[in-house]
Amino acid sequence: MTTPALLRLRETFPDAHIALLTPDKLTDLWQNHPAVNEVISFAAGENIFSVAKKLRAGKFDLALALPNSPRSAMETWLAGIPQRIGYARPFRNFFLTQAVPPRTDAMTMRKRSVGEIKELAAATNQSRTGRTPVPLSSAHQIHEYLHLVATLGANPEPLAPQLTVTPDEIEAAKKKFGLSETTQPIFGLNPGAEYGPAKRWPIERFIAAAKQIQQRTNCVWVLTGGKNDAVLAAQIQSAIGNRQSALNLAGQTSLRELMVLLKICRVLLTNDSGPMHVAAALGTPVVAPFGSTSPELTGPGLPGDSRHRLLKSDAPCSPCFLRECPIDFRCMNGISVERVVEAVVEALKG
């Protein structure tokens, strides 16, 4: 979701050297990205002084602290970067040369208390069919980053998030995973979500939807995810059928290979997750049920992009932003298999 801001930054400063600081595990996301000249990575658990030393070596003129943490601002200060810009937040303003006030139209992701959730749930005893939300024009997280680069004169108008893979990578991945000769349409299915179970549509519904979609389209499902999703993906593969119907690659790909697989999919059926955002940034239509989180704030792609289908129930306690549901999981249970199937079919037509 930072990529629109980075693209606007490149647009404004076409000759600048732009370096991106990112965790090691995400480095490959930025390969061949048009907005970035250099990627500086840090390991999990690496201390603040080590990171600052890496930044100091770059002799940078200006730093944008995109995260709102005190640490992100302090690292740029320790690195001796002359200009340091970020949002004004407690315990970090001292380290910034320009503390940018929060946007007046920003929306926050406030976690609901268990008591509040129970009170909201008790207010209705009806099961409702739900609706697809209309994203608010200024609510989405991409505007937070665009507003920061606008302080440097960049255009704050949103662009679609963008990641890139090459034709050679596509051919290599197809060959490696046995998809070169496939004549069936390739669909992606990503059933996991690292944040927690509150973001995961029930597995039995994924299976039912995948079976119906396969019968209607004769697709081959490519099951994606990390190593922690391998068992879940194996269950789904077993329930769907043979290898001609489902290929389980969860935990078997590098990040670049995952990106390529998401790129070649005609559509991705997924929970709200990292792969959801990556697929959208690669131009793949996404169908995603949302429960504990808000598509208005952190949906995939450009807000309002008609290629994507973002589904919500009418659960009054959603979004709660909790990792686990403290009641009956009505937000996800309120999204039917039939509704997801039709959303996938509509995304294909689009």
Kindly list the characteristics that best describe this protein.
globular, three-stranded parallel β-sheet, six-stranded parallel β-sheet
Rg of Cα set: 21 Å
Major beta-sheet overview: 6 strands, parallel
Q: Which oligomeric form is depicted?
A: single chain
Chain-averaged pLDDT: 91
Question: What portion of the residues fall into strands of 2 or more residues?
Answer: 5-15%
Query: What fraction, in percent, of the residue positions are helical?
Result: 25-40%
Number-wise, the strands total 11
Number of helices: 13
Give the helix/strand class.
alpha/beta
Unreliable segments (pLDDT under 50, ≥5 consecutive)?
126-135
Shape: globular
Instruction: Give the N-to-C terminal Cα separation.
Output: 23 Å
Strand order of the largest sheet: 8-7-6-9-10-11
- Helix and strand string, N-terminal first? HEEHEHEEHHHEHEHEHEHEHEHH
